[in-house]
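Query form — protein Oxa1-like homolog, mitochondrial inner membrane insertase

QUESTION: What is the three-dimensional structure of this chain?
INPUT:
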Amino acid sequence: MHVMGGVQSGVQAVHHTTGLPWWATIAVATIGVKISLLPVVVYQAGHMDRMRAAWPEIQILRGYLATSLEEIPQERVLERWRKYKVFFSGARGVLGLHGTHLRGMFATPLVNLPVFITFVWSIRGMLRDGTVPGLDTGEADTVHSLMLPIIGTLCTYTSLEIVKMKGATGWMKFFQDGMQTFIILMLPWVSTFPQGVFMYWIPSAVFQMGQTYTMKNNKVRELLGLKPLGLPPREAAGATPSLAPAPAPAPIPAPKAIGG
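ANSWER: The structure tokens for Oxa1-like homolog, mitochondrial inner membrane insertase are given below.
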């Protein structure tokens, strides 16, 4: 409750300071919060650079895992699980050697999701309690009740489409497609939100789209000290040691018999 109260006080302070209508106040506060989170975005991008450098080594470990699992029947579950544990331990070690970890690679969603939920529920609370006159009136009310939920849903769907990994397969593709399907299925519930909630939701999603496009620009990445995109992992991050098995040494010829 203290966090939500702080958000509500901050939004009211922006309104009283700027004199903007409530819908614009929420939009301005949203952009301000998103800008304040940009260091987290750069932090995650740096970890993703290091992840791309580590990926070839992890793929080699996956190859070793697949080979070792071929020798173990499906019924020997415990023995197969031990192989997976060794793989996960090795993958963590490779990530550590490259100076990255899973928390760093998911820093932005781990921060953005709580912020999004806090803002949405804070604004809903302000509307429900009626503590802020005018928040549910003005220009937002002139829009059809379904227009803002549809726009917000489309913006979020498009934002997820922009960040989708090209060529994703397996569980990653399932996760990406599942997230977009979930967003669409949530539309009936989302349409019950007060109009003021979308004054945060829509600017946040639009800012996210612009941020994603900007972070894909190699000139911007260079200014931020990040590696350029579009290069093979080893070129982008420098040479990395290979974990591929070394070739077998050439056989040593047997010594000739004495006096032969």
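ADDITIONAL NOTE: Confidence is low (pLDDT under 50) at residues 137-144, 236-250, 254-260.
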